[in-house]
Each structure stands twice: as C-alpha cells, then as structure tokens.
Design brief:
Structural class: alpha/beta
Oligomer: single chain
Shape: globular
Protein name: PTS sugar transporter subunit IIB
Organism: Enterococcus quebecensis
CATH superfamily: Response regulator
GO molecular function: kinase activity; protein-N(PI)-phosphohistidine-sugar phosphotransferase activity
Keywords: Kinase, Phosphoprotein, Phosphotransferase system, Sugar transport, Transferase, Transport
GO biological process, one term: phosphoenolpyruvate-dependent sugar phosphotransferase system
Strand order of the largest sheet: 2-1-3-4
Length: 100
C-alpha cells in the first residue's frame, strides 16, 4: 500500500507520516507512506494507492483529482491533522483504498 501526503511544503505532513507509520507497523501492515509539498506531487505520486491532502491545501482537491483521476484523493480532517492522529488518518485511507 502506497500513501502519499501532500501539503504546502511537506513539513507538517512529515510528522503525520511518522504517526501513520507507527500505527501501520503496530498492526503488522506494510505501508509506504511519504510526504511532499504539493509542487513535488508529480514526482512522488507514481504507484500511489491514495493521495491525502493537508487541510491547508484542501481547496486544491478538485485540481488534484483532475490531474490524477486514477488515484483517490482525500483531504485530511482538520482535527485529525491538528492532533496528528495517525491511526485515524491511516484507517480512513485504508477504507478508501479498499473501496476502490
């Protein structure tokens, strides 16, 4: 499973990636989770099962969906992002990947 997070610069999502990796590891789930700035998405998105957008770039969701129509795109909930709730964000991503 490959999950790509994108935000304005990739810094704040980097912390969330660590929390998501910790949860996946605790569940015995192998996952490739990475963060990048929205401007780097094109270079990093190949093979992704889902693209998660930080709330601060959520307004670009439609553009990202148009750019990558074959990959589900989700804006991370503001509360989950602020609390760095890696478990909840990971579970939501899993749910969407399974549904597609």
């Amino acid at each position: 499973m490959k999950i790509t997070l994108a935000c304005a610069g990739g810094m704040s999502t980097g912390m969330l990636v660590k929390k998501m990796e910790e949860y996946a590891s605790s569940q015995g789930i192998e996952a490739d989770i990475s963060a990048c700035g929205l401007s780097e998405l094109e270079e990093r998105v190949a093979g992704s099962d889902i693209i998660l957008l930080g709330p601060q770039v959520g307004y670009q969701q439609d553009d990202v969906k148009r750019e990558y129509p074959e990959i589900p795109v989700l804006v991370i909930e503001m509360m989950d992002y602020g609390m760095m709730n890696g478990e909840k964000v990971f579970k939501k991503a899993q749910e969407i990947i399974s549904a597609n």
